[in-house]
Amino acid sequence: MTERRFPDMWLDPEDDPREAGDQASGEKGVLTDYLDRYRLTLELKCDGLDAEQLARRSVPPSTLSLLGLVRHLAKVEHSWFRRVLEGRPELDRLYWSEEDRDLDFNGALADPAVVDDAWHSWRAEVSHGQAYLESVTDLGARVDHHGESIEVRDVIVHLIEEYARHVGHADLLRECIDGRTGQ
């Protein structure tokens, strides 16, 4: 293993994939770039952990875990892009049921198959969301959400907010697992 130049940081700046590439410009570019950076940060926070570590709960009685966050954010991506923006509320909700509305966290078990399913679902929903955003030409376009008209822009900003909050949780969860703190 190569010695790190900045051992107090998650990654040395030159190794950080979030710093690769050109800086985005324009409203759509900046917003989607922020969202993609938070998505990548979630992956980085979970990197190298086994099923038990990913499923490890924070503080009882909380069900918060890194694996739960991956499942939750897959559910969030699915709900906002497929159900709301695409207007497909008939789709089954991901990691949710009438019996267990917190299935995303409650079902985050220390099982490699559960971990594989979570990452597969999350990556599929992220890919779908990215493709949707590529096709958007007007961030001011409006969709109906529970009888309220909202802009695509508002959904993107909400997703950035959702990821920012949960990546903060991921920082603390990862630190409890192996002491790593992140930038």
UniProtKB/TrEMBL annotation:
<protein>
    <submittedName>
        <fullName>DinB family protein</fullName>
    </submittedName>
</protein>
<feature type="region of interest" description="Disordered">
    <location>
        <begin position="1"/>
        <end position="27"/>
    </location>
</feature>
<dbReference type="InterPro" id="IPR007061">
    <property type="entry name" value="MST-like"/>
</dbReference>
<dbReference type="InterPro" id="IPR034660">
    <property type="entry name" value="DinB/YfiT-like"/>
</dbReference>
<dbReference type="Pfam" id="PF04978">
    <property type="entry name" value="MST"/>
</dbReference>
